[in-house]
Design goal:
- The protein is globular.
- Helix 4 runs parallel beside helix 9 and helix 5 packs parallel to helix 11.
- The protein folds into three domains: 61 residues, Transferase, Pyrimidine Nucleoside Phosphorylase, Chain C (Transferase, Pyrimidine Nucleoside Phosphorylase, Chain A, domain 3), CATH 1.20.970; 237 residues, Pyrimidine Nucleoside Phosphorylase, Chain A, domain 2 (3-Layer(aba) Sandwich), CATH 3.40.1030; 86 residues, Pyrimidine nucleoside phosphorylase-like, C-terminal domain (Aldehyde Oxidoreductase, domain 3, Alpha-Beta Complex).
- The chain is an alpha/beta fold.
- Strands 1-4-5-13 form a four-stranded mixed β-sheet, sandwiched between helices. Strands 6-9-11-7 form a four-stranded antiparallel β-sheet, with helices on both faces.
- The relative contact order is 0.14.
- The structure holds uracil (URA).
- This is Pyrimidine-nucleoside phosphorylase.
Amino acid sequence: MNFVDIIRSKRDGRELSREEIDFLVQGISEGSMPDYQIAALAMAIYFQGMSERETADLTVAMAYSGEVADLSGIAGKTVDKHSTGGVGDKTTMIVLPLVAALGVPVAKMSGRGLGHTGGTIDKFESIPGFRVEMEHKSFIEQVNRIGAAVISQTGNLVPADKKLYAIRDVTATVESIPLIASSVMSKKLASGAEAILLDVKTGRGAFMKEKEEAIELARLMVKIGQRAGRQVRAVISNMDQPLGRMIGNALEVKEAIDTLKGKGPSDLEELCLVLASHMLILGEKETDFNRALNRVREVLAAGKGLDKFMELVKAQGGSIDLDDENYGLPEAQFKYPVIAERSGYIAGVDAYMIGYTAMHLGAGREKIGDSIDYAVGIELNQKTGDKVAKGDVLAFVHANHEEKGREAVKKVLHAYQIEDAIFQKKPLIFEVVE
Ligand code: URA
């Protein structure tokens, strides 16, 4: 067996055997397959696709290319949650304490953000003192003690995906359904949870621009998980405009706390309630969706989600001051308004453009290893469907650099589409795949 013959087979549209896939993944993780051959392989898969069996074999081979988390020491059925990447997506910070308060243990390993999408670990790290590194033993112990823990993915989790994803990122081969499915699911399998809830995003700010593609991706991920003996469900949600009103790490923590206080934006709260309800079912705490939804609503209204969030923050060394207007989170030096240049109805707020603008302000990374400014970001005052008059404030740019801030104001203005007539808004949640 050699790499060139296997790349040629895929280039010509043939199905690869499990042995060939294992050989490739071993070559990628050991470093014996050079980057140019990995790039050629990714492009061949991009054009020729992969069958469900090939994708499942690739996923399992990647999942076992490094360390695999052992969560057997956790009492109860562990449920993981994963979003395929969005703008303003702070749902993990809200959903995790809500379900933990209802007895579903969550041992969360999360990644850092790249490009226009944010990463959960960066958001948690914007809380002063919050530690995202922990010994495995302490991780398990914390989940058993308080029901939840969040850590950064260890360096040796799915090394084959790390290498392949980095090459896909610079060779225009990210947007391939089998490659995304195997990348996401390999990390989920290696993270060890028995059940997994996926939030598959679709729309302008997502990898999957079309709803049908997102559904195809979700179906494939659910099947791969089931083949590997895990229970998987996927919620398909809209990412045409950012989720909630805040984009940027500390700003998103602030909005997550507001939501746990029952004062969050309606779209964010709605998605969190739905995701938490599905996790309750996957965790076998409920069988009926409406009953699960009612229980999550009750926990939110009673402030138990906020209590659990504060317990989690404290357990991981973080400090939040609920009496402070900004909860003691980092704040940017400048706040620039973005002013509407015409009257009308907001027909869209381009999530991709907002995500990129936030990244350029310093809230995200253009490439792996870039540093982050936790305080900066964008605050949306108006969202799709809102009526605005010329001169109204559409948004605020939170910046620590004047020139970057002024540049961002122009881009945010451009991300707003204002029309004369009201139009039909798309739903926030399209469907559930299981
Ligand atoms: N997220 C991942 O982890 N992998 C992909 O390929 C795309 C999104």
